[in-house]
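Possible regression after last week's pipeline update?

I re-ran a chain I had predicted before the update to compare outputs. Posting the input and the new output here so someone can diff against the archived version. Not blocking, just want to make sure nothing changed silently.
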Amino acid sequence: MTTPAMLIQHLEAFLSEFRELNMSYDQHANNYSEMEKTIGEFTAFVLNQQNEEIWKQVESQFNNNKLARNIAELREQSAYCVWAMEKYRAMELLLNRQGIAEYFNNIEACIASEFGRFEITTGSKVLLIGAGAFPMTPLLIARKTGAEVVGIDIDPEAVGLARNVVSLLGQNSSIRIENTTIDQLDFTQRATHIVFASTIKEKFELLQQLHPLTNGDIVVAMRYGNGLKSLFNYPLQAVDSLLWRIVNRVQQPGNVFDVAIYKKEA
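New output (post-update):
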């Protein structure tokens, strides 16, 4: 049986693995298979219900500065690894080699299960903040609804790869990927739905910025992870109640992130 001490040891081992993988990636090593394996194992670890129960005991130790620092770094390192894996996956697809990590299988399942909550239709205009190199959300939304979808990202390389993926998989779909920010994008004012990627650290600061930039009926889907899922996602935070209110929280026990739905306060 896993104990809190054993869980912490597992977390430290994952942190060490992610550090090494990310350092190798930065040095231009081709470590796709190792990244795929570690991300898959980490996904299974985060979704293990027994580990979630033990995590509740570990959380009480967050006054331990070393543990708190390691948890914060693990979140950063795992997010970086996913960012790199998205690029690998895009390049593999474009080279006609379609390996897929368990994490990406799970993300696609998450998108499918959250999908119906947004009431997206053919006439909707959907903005994804944090499109990444492999834009699964725009592709799935456009394929299932025919809605117009714009994904934005601040990483030029990711945007270039994402555009190539869309050209290959999103033919006849109304999808654009832009290297810009929310305040520089005209589409922000016209959007009916906005989706935040779960690994965006500044997503709640961006939510506040969005208030004057968007229309009164905007629906915002904020992907997040609390509890053990916070190791793979940034957790839910309080927002200015004069600006936004949560109208629904979609709990997805078997999926790597949950979703909070926001609307503007009247």
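Follow-up from reviewer: compared with the archived run. The first helix runs from residue 4 to 26. Marking as no regression found.
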